[in-house]
Design a protein that fits this description.
With about 260 residues, the chain is α/β, with parallel strands linked by helices. The chain has ten helices and ten strands. The longest helix has 22 residues, at about 235-255. The chain starts with a helix and ends with a helix.
Length: about 260
Amino acid sequence: MKAHAEAEALLRKDTLSEDDKDFVLANWHPDAEHNVAAAGVFFTPMGLAADFALEPGCGRVIDLCAGIGGLAYWVQQRSKWRGAVDLTSVEINPRFVEIGRKLLPEARWICVDVLDWREWWHGELEGAMFDWAIANPPFGKLAAPGARRGFRSFEFAVIDIASEIADNGVFILPQSSASFRYSGRQRFERLTSGPGAAFEQQTGLFMDCGIGIDTSIYRDQWRGVAPLCEIVTVEFAEWRERRRAQALEDRPRQLVLL
């Protein structure tokens, strides 16, 4: 709590230095003001966020369920060596957005419910596509079905939304929601059953482990929890191309039947 109070003091400054931002990201605790555990909201540990940022490339990047901007902050830092990024951060909590704008003024911040994506994507962003979607979404069940296909798990609803607005995606998911096991294991294992495999079968999307980051080394650095996670990458543009090709292939058959 002492470190959180120091972070709060830094946030009262008009402009934050890089050291100030690092301190706030490492020590500002959302539980001090919000019951985030009930909503399944947990901020990404700094080290994990820095490793995560090795996955996305340059270009237009949207951070869904951005929190105070930990993932986007490290994507911005990595861009100094990897190529420029144009960042947009979407977050429903006004206090998180307020802090995020201090930590990452380079990003465009939108304070909305990510599940209302049709409204804010077409309204605020004019339906512009992104090169990358990134997210550490809330873990757990939705109170009501979300996105287009009625997903009950928040993380699957967020991936589904990302598939409509971005060409590629990188996500932190509970290991139980991934279609593979890598972190904390001696070898990679592809699953044929479970929530992740069922998601792939339902959507046609394929989860990969990208460059292969073992998130288990950061398990004791989460605040208030110790989840075992996976960093999941998905190629949405390739998936959309496969769907278009399948639709063209099916069209002559449909005409013959008519």
